[in-house]
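Hi R.,

As promised on Friday, here is the backbone we talked about, encoded as structure tokens. Could you run it through your design pipeline when you get a chance and send me back a sequence?
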């Protein structure tokens, strides 16, 4: 098999973006390391191209599994060209009613697991002097919404970290992209979604209402995960890949509107901002 065929390492392939992306990569002739918390959950995808697929167990909150999976992938294929940090899940609650164990568990999966997997893959990409790290964040990584404060915090963390990562690894031939989807027909709002129901009347029209709306539209979101996966494939191996890739009409319109408003507010306070420096600075 030619070493020119790119090797993808994708976390969280049992459902949603990860599953569709792994399937398309294999159908289009690529090689893929397909991971999930149980490899049996992705055996059907690996069966599409047994000679180009490697199914592995991977819980990104388990450092030993991260190390074993990356080592197995490198041993099997000899390289990793694209790392897709897709594993993670949603948790909704009002800020006040958030449960500490559930908040910390979400950070372990969405943030610290992503960091750890990337650290494990970076030595391989540095040695190759090439690679692309794609982090699946969210519109919530750029904006906050009622009931998604802790989820947004995990995605904001990945966005800021990705800014620093890009500066460090771009000179080494490694690209960094955050994919920021709006509502897509994945399992995010279905069985994968965790919620702490709000019982405080003051949040009935904010956090509680949005939680009810979110649960109600699972399976009816406008975003198509197959189209999103194809877009990721299209940009994955191109030079000068975008740092931000917002997907879906809702995402595009909401993000651009909010960012313009944010910039206008900052610019309106220019004199206040500059006045905080020492006069001779």
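Update: got your reply. Pasting your designed sequence below so it's all in one thread:
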């Amino acid at each position: 098999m030619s070493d020119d065929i790119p090797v993808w390492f994708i976390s969280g392939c049992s459902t949603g973006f990860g599953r569709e992306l792994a399937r398309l990569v294999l159908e289009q002739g690529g090689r893929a390391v397909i991971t999930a918390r149980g490899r049996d959950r992705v055996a059907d995808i690996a069966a599409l191209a047994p000679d180009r697929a490697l199914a592995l167990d991977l819980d990104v909150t388990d450092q030993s599994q991260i190390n074993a999976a990356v080592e197995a992938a490198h041993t099997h294929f000899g390289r990793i060209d694209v790392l897709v940090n897709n594993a993670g899940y949603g948790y909704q609650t009002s800020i006040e009613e958030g449960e500490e164990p559930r908040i910390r568990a979400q950070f372990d999966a969405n943030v610290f697991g992503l960091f750890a997997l990337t650290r494990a893959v970076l030595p391989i990409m540095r040695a190759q002097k090439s690679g692309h790290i794609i982090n699946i964040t969210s519109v919530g990584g750029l904006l906050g919404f009622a009931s998604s404060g802790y989820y947004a915090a995990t995605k904001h963390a990945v966005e800021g970290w990705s800014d620093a990562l890009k500066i460090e690894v771009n000179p080494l031939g490694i690209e960094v992209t955050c994919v920021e989807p709006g509502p897509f027909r994945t399992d995010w709002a279905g069985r994968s979604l965790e919620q702490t129901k709000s019982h405080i009347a003051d949040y009935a029209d904010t956090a509680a209402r949005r939680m009810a709306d979110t649960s109600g539209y699972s399976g009816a979101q406008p975003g198509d995960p197959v189209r999103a996966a194809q877009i990721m494939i299209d940009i994955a191996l191109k030079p000068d890949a975008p740092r931000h890739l917002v997907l879906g009409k809702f995402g595009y319109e909401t993000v651009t509107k909010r960012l313009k408003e944010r910039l206008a507010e900052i610019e309106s306070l220019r004199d206040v901002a500059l006045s905080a420096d020492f006069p001779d600075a």
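One thing I noticed while checking it: The chain has one domain: 7-274.

Thanks again,
M.
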